[in-house]
Amino acid sequence: MTVAGESASADSAGSTNTVFGVPAGLLAAAASLVLIGAFLAVVYDITNVVGRRDQFVLLAAGTLALATVVGWTLRPRYALGLAVLIAGGGFAAYFLALPESQVALLSPERLLADTFALLSGLSALRLLSADVWALAVTPGPVFLAWYLAVRGRIAPAVAVAGGGLGLFVLTTDASGTLTLLGVGAGMAAVGLDGIDRFGSAGGQLDVLTVVLAAMVVLSATVTVLPGAGGSPVIADGGVAEQPTVEASLVSADDRISVVGSISLSPQVRFEVQSTSPDYWQTATFDRYTGDGWVRTGDTRDYEGGRLAGPEGPSRLVRQTVTPATPLDSMPAAWRPVAVSGDIENETLVTQQGNLRPDRAVEIGETYNVTSAVPQYTAASLRRTGTDYPDEIRERYLALPDSTSDRVRDRAAEIAGDAETPYDKAVAVEEWLEANKEYSLRVSRPDGDIAESFLFEMDAGYCTYYASTMVVLLRSEGVPARFVTGYTTGERVGGDRYVVRGLDSHAWVEVYFEDTGWVRFDPTPAGPRQDAESTTLSDARDEGQTGVDTNETNVESNETEQPTTTATDTETPTEDGNETNVTPAGGSPPGPSIDERLGVTPTGDGAVDDDEGGGLVPEMPSRETILVGLVGLLGVVAGVRRTRLPAHLRFATAAYQRRTDSPADDVFRAYDRLELALEREYRPRRPGETVRSYLDSLSRVGVDERTRQVGRLYERAKYGDGVTRADADEAVAAANAVVRARLPLVRRWTD
Amino acid sequence: MTDAHADADFDSAPSVEAVSDLATRISENVERVIVGHHDAIEDIIVALFARGHLLLEDVPGVGKTMLARAIATSIEGSFERIQFTPDLLPSDVTGVNVFNQQTSEFEFREGPVFGNVVLGDEINRAPPKTQAALLEVMEELQVTVDGVTRRVPDPFTVIATQNDVEPDRTYDLPLAELDRFMKKIHLGYPNEAEETELLGRVSGHHPIESLEPVASAGDVRDARERILDVTVSEPVRRYVSRLAADTRARADLGVSPRGSIALVRAAQARAALDARDYVVPDDVQREVRSVWAHRIRTTDERAGRDVVERAIDTVAVE
């Protein structure tokens, strides 16, 4: 960078190396800015979800401006001190902003543990006061990185900004695309800095292009590391298999990313014996990010005894769960208050009140859970007020700053007339059931999930229904949250239920004063059960293992839904939406197995039309085209690097057609000769004459005959011209020299 | 000079081979006296053949006078030496009319400028007016005193030296006058072997005393005519123009068209020395440093050479 002076004066005496006419130093600084931008974009997304977005934008712009000014004026020593001061001040502000209850818990071990958790994949979104945290971490690295870039110290600048971005890669907050952009920009910055310092001789630019292209293409096509359980990394082009509903919803993860098309797994997961059928809840999520859900707060150990139950009246339900495959969650009816069994000592309790195992629960490792299931009626819920506790308000009414007005307008339209929170919830639930089709085959929308589902999509599955319902309720001031788990499963006599992967589900809980959390399920039950039972029967037809226990697949068994048996007491769904009981062995109409299991990749949108119409035919993937272009660019640079064009050009120099002009023949003969010498020794420099070029090469083996061509060239060009005989001599000499260096041609012509 | 050109007998004009041979004879003869400095001798011959004058910048005592004398003797020409001092008058250079009492007429007494090879020693010690007198002769090849014009002998070549060790007592030549010199070269000190050889030669009689001519002034005149006919093709002319444009882009004051003309002349002579009837870019490159470096005005003189070197490196040869 020219303003820095330091790198410019380092060598090459003031001459600036350029890339496509732009000073390389300037480009390097620009690439650093892109990397810093990637870092800022991640924090922007965080603040968008957790709040203080506008403050963040101001802060980031201010920091960049300050760094620019300081970069021009202040020496590195003082600037470094300033950076430390800024970073330290940020973190001090974060700790001051933490609620007192949390500060009381602060201890060195705790801080260490938190840091470790953050670095090993804990999303920053899960931090308490994540908004303040984001504002605290931003200025330090941004200031230092941009300051260094302005000073022309590209490498340290990239290290600082890359470190910042790297932190968010570890916390999983940085998306793949942003990470790639950041890493690519950092790479480009360092490479351009090298060109700035040492010039682009030796094809530096080509190498840089090849490396960048390889990074983009490889990261777009090759998945070396499997995606984490709860957030499948699915390339939009559909390279990986489609995830199952279960994998995307039910696991120990603290975060759910909504994906595109999804399939159902017919495998039996566990068997539960319960005094009352229910939905088996595994996790609850409070923070909506626009593209998924995050569970905030820490877990604590279950230390025996009885956990707090719901605020209102409840009755105890005892469940005995026997895993059929290792489980990394602990399904239980809401709200679990006690656990017993081997896993008891390794049970964690989330801040939302769910249980989760500290390790996988092994096959056959039975445990007992006691749940206090809330008791309520529609009438009792209608009577509750809206004087919610502050904690509920803060956590369960928050929406991303980017939530659009049309979502809020639509929410008001749907639930505006309802007077009580309960009526609003019912209104939203019914509206969703009535207006959206159930389908497992959807393409992941680009923007906000709820907004896309409301306005652009005609169909979706439980995640879309539940997410949208929560967003609509929250924008109407009704506290709600996103819950994942399993539906009741297949009843196998008496009080036992077999639960399969395809029973995994997402639904909504709404908070009511004096009652606690109450379940609402906006997903139309009929189509969902159809899809599930079709999957099951198909799997049976195909003879898959692990689909049945000894007791299932008996004609008399019913896939019993809790809503059918407990409508009056438990679930406020009033109509018969979920009474649609399908015989397990039946073959209800529906999409063929291939489509539902998602054998066809999402990107290939040709067969979508029978799935309820309206699906926008997918772009034959902009990304694929983009990746292809980048790859092509890399290939071009690589080809340049291998000097293939030079080889081809040289091959064409093997022959020469004689013209009427002896002088032209001599010129062409000399050009061919020079091409051959260029390949073997070195090219002629711009200010080097033909004579001195050949003279210098004669010291390393150019023969007299070759030099004679040079003399003829001189005579033709500067002197009194050449004769036909001279021209023939030159052409013959050139033929000999060129063909001696082309083994194949030599063989033909000898 | 146009007169001389017209008078030339084209049938008897020597071939370029003969010009080359003449140059070799002169330079070998001079080298019997001067040890080393082969390139400088060639440079002087080029200037002599290309009707140019030469500026030597050196410390005293490296053999400048001897070199000029040896050249003059080799071509059987007259040698004159003018020691420039602060009190030297223009008439001390050009000559003066004196009254002859026997004939009662003014007769012209030739100044030292009337010689085939004139050594102007420490030219920067004389006041500007005296410098100008010499420079005028260099350009006009004639002396005008009291309304009468007299031609200096042909060939006429001035070898001027500048003393750069006592700059506080000198009148630096203005750039416009430096431009009159075709070339500026440095002799520099002889190396150890050369100096040993030199001391061996001068221990007895100085060899200059016994130096014999190897050519006549007429041979030099013929060579000068022949060189005018050496072909300068368009690519070469274009190359020179581009070099000149490059210096103009890089220096406060680049090379004037006069400088470009001088370069083409010198390159023609260089081609003839190489027994070639046409100029190649190599001739241009060989001459451009000594012909141009002193014509470029930058912050210091070294940078003038750098400008030329850079032009050679970057301007593409056709």
TrEMBL record, chain A:
SUPFAM superfamilies to which the protein is assigned, alphabetical: Cysteine proteinases (SSF54001)
One family name in Pfam for this protein: Transglut_core
Annotated TM spans: 20-44, 56-74, 80-99, 133-149, 154-171, 177-195, 207-225
Name recorded for this polypeptide: Transglutaminase
Keywords (A to Z) from UniProt: Membrane, Transmembrane, Transmembrane helix
PANTHER family for this protein: PROTEIN-GLUTAMINE GAMMA-GLUTAMYLTRANSFERASE
Biased composition (Low complexity): 549-570
Domain of life, per lineage: Archaea
Region spans: Disordered: 518-618
InterPro entries: Bact_TGase-like, Papain-like_cys_pep_sf, TgpA-like_C, Transglutaminase-like
Keyword Transmembrane helix: yes
Domain Transglutaminase-like, chain residue ranges per copy: 454-524
TrEMBL record, chain B:
GO MF annotation terms: ATP binding; ATP hydrolysis activity
Domain annotation ChlI/MoxR AAA lid: ranges: 245-307
Domain of life: Archaea
CDD domains attached to this UniProt entry: AAA
Pfam families: AAA_3, AAA_lid_2
Span of domain ATPase AAA-3: 53-182
Protein name: Methanol dehydrogenase regulatory protein
Lineage, uppermost ranks: Archaea, Methanobacteriati, Methanobacteriota, Stenosarchaea group, Halobacteria
